[in-house]
Amino acid sequence: MDYFFGFKSVISQPEAEPSPADTVLRLVERVTSSTLLEDRRDACRAIKALSKKYRLEVGAHGLDALIAVLISDPDLETSSFVLETLCNVTSSEVFDEEGVGAPVGEQFTEIFLKKSENVISVITLLDEYDFHVRLPAIRLLMNLLNNKSKEMQEIILACPMGVAKLIDILSDSRDFVRNEALLLLIQLTKSNANIQNIIAYERGFDQLFKVVASEGYSDGGIVVDDSLQLMLNLLKRNASNQTVFREESCMKEITPFFRSCQPSESDPGHSWSTQKISNVHSMLQVVRTLVSPANATQVVSPAQKNVYGCGLLSELCALLMSPGVPADILSEIICTVGESIRGCRRNQEFFGQVMASSSPPRTALIVLLMSMVNEKQPVPLRAAVLYCFECFLYKNDVSQGQIIQALLPTSTEAMQNISAGQLLCGGLFSTDCLSHWLSSVALSHALVGNINNKELLLRVHLAIAKDVAPVSLLQQAFNILQMGGKLQTRLGILTLVSTWLADSPNSVAQFLKLPNAVAFLTALVASNEHDDQEVLVQSLCAFLLGLCVVYNNDSNSNFSKESLCQLITKRIGVETFVDKLAEIAKHEVYSKALKHPQIRINTAADIQFDHEFCRLYKALESVIAKAVAPPTSPKGAESPSESELKAVSKYKDVIREQDGQIQHLRQRLAALEGDHIAAQSKIEELNVNLHHLQDQNTLLKAQRNNNVIIDESEPSSQSESSTEKLMKQLEALRLDNERLQGQLEQQQSAKDLGMPVVCSFFRPESSANTMDLELKTVRSRLDAMEAELAETKRCLSVSIAENAELKEEIDRLKKDQEDLLVLLADQDGKVQKYKDRLKTLGQTVSEDEDEELDDLGEDDEEFSS
């Protein structure tokens, strides 16, 4: 019983379950071998169900099969299953079903992209309107872009109408599909100007503005932000797309966006959601990209005119003065307005006339400056106001003059109105060091490139208190500098004074009249402070002292240009002065400020240098260094001694001798190069002859292997003909030789017998010499012809020997062929005999065997023939 029970347990044991790899292999085999559409579709559905949990197995065993189905199968449902499977396989994320493991999506993406036809087939499927086909196709392209962006961009560029098909999806009525296409285009347009240009030329801006309008402008969701991000990708650092944007009148499409941001009468307490802040910020970035100072002037100027012409500047100024705007958005609006008016006189005049809703009425510029000098305001907002004020004064000498003129009031009524200049001068006496810096830099921009304003500012006097007599603004600025204070205060005052004195000799003369001015600057530059902040102050003081040297009109005899240079040499040292002067350029803050007019800050302590001051320093640093340390004059140079002259003469002789040797070596080198070239040409000629002989040898071997009988008559006839020619020439030469020998003997015998000379002009000796020469020439020619004849005979014998060998080889091959035919005939007879015996014994011989035997017989006949 135990035996039968054990046998029963063995039989009833269940079979082991197949592994995931075996399951995938079976499904892949069904996909490749199924002829019915339903079977192939079911297999693709099953593979899609396994693609998340067993992604590695599906990708390793089924990727090629899935690609083949995607390219060749017209069924949309099957294509949707394949696309979803490929999305799972190429995804860069790790699915929960597959557990912990390294993502393999990038490796499968690389395999998929080996053939560009695979991507083109996916793009072709975008023409299908089916939701289950178009959406996974977009997601698959997105996965491929995330994993291999450069390769995908090149393939899509090469695909006919590839980018155009992606743009058409933006007009899809299904928001979900359209939004996925937006994300795909954002990734596709990164760092690829060609794709950006194609989208712009395919009226991509119109499609994007339609999406923004349909979503509700600034009040829309994240789709608005995505559309604006794509617009930014198309416009940043792309001058051609910016031109297309302007020529297609897209600027007027931005105006309704900012109009929707303003509070309405029904909702005065208009709130700003997080998404709205992001949307408005992105649109402001679009406007700033068009009018950025980093762009070329021929691009910025038309864009600024369009900003004013379409009413966008008016909407921005209205939003600027609206209540309830968040501080970060307000800072961005201020910078956008500043760049929109920078260097454009009409826009600057418009902004100068914008009024704020305040009591008493004030211009928007005054309200902004009041915010700038208010230490309670956020630092980014104050820095943005300074940038906007700089843009307002950029290349605007009229507004610069108005600010300085306002500091010289002519009536009591004018003194009661707060002006921009008064606010800036008031900021100089603030207790906030940042207000000192901002006010000083803002006031310096009223002096940039305007010598008249610099001289007018010398007339400005300030009274700190009622009981204190007013002092000049220049004296007051120097007093603030003397009192020390924080770093920002001193840097701001030095920036203002340096801009003031540059290119203004009268201002320099007034500054040198200030008590202790030169002594204070000299002491600071000569000090040995090693703190980074103090080094900056010393460098700025050296720059200011250098300006007093360069723009000195020598009106002050105590501090003329020459006396200041001597003072620097004695008290500081020229090398020390130049080193201190160059310290600014070594600082990181200087490099950042020089790149862009806007101040990029994280904290208030980062504000140290202004863009215009850095440009001024860069232009005048070398000028100051040359003025303070002029080159030494050659007049005072000592004449060389006699020993030095002898040494120089000796070295000259040595150099002359070496030069002669060099020339000789160069000539030898040229001769050797000529010999080398001649040898190379000779070698090439010999190589050509060698190749020719090798080709002939190869041809002879091929003829021998192909059993071709060489006709001996032709080469032998040729050899015989050449031999006959040589023999004829040899015979002619021998006859000439005998004739000349006879003439020579006759002349010798006549000379011995003393016979008279018949011709008076005939000279026996010269004739004999001539005959000797001719005889020698003929003998040499005879020897040459005999040598050539011997060589020809040798070649002929060699050819005859080779032909004999070839003939023997052909005879041997013919004999072997006859033996082979005999053997084949015997074998044919035996096969027929065995066939008859099989039939006699009752065995059946198949038709195939008969045909094979017949074919064999036919082959034998052909071979024998």
TrEMBL record:
Keywords: Coiled coil, Cytoplasm, Golgi apparatus, Membrane, Repeat. The keyword Ribonucleoprotein does not apply. Residues 842-865 are annotated as: Disordered. Residues 846-865 have a biased composition (Acidic residues). It is found in: Cytoplasm; Endomembrane system; Golgi apparatus. Residues 717-861 form the Uso1/p115-like vesicle tethering protein C-terminal domain. It holds the Pfam family Uso1_p115_C. This is General vesicular transport factor p115. It is a peripheral membrane protein. Transmembrane segments: none annotated. Residues 346-628 form the Vesicle tethering protein Uso1/P115-like head domain. The lineage of its organism: Eukaryota, Metazoa, Ecdysozoa, Arthropoda, Crustacea.
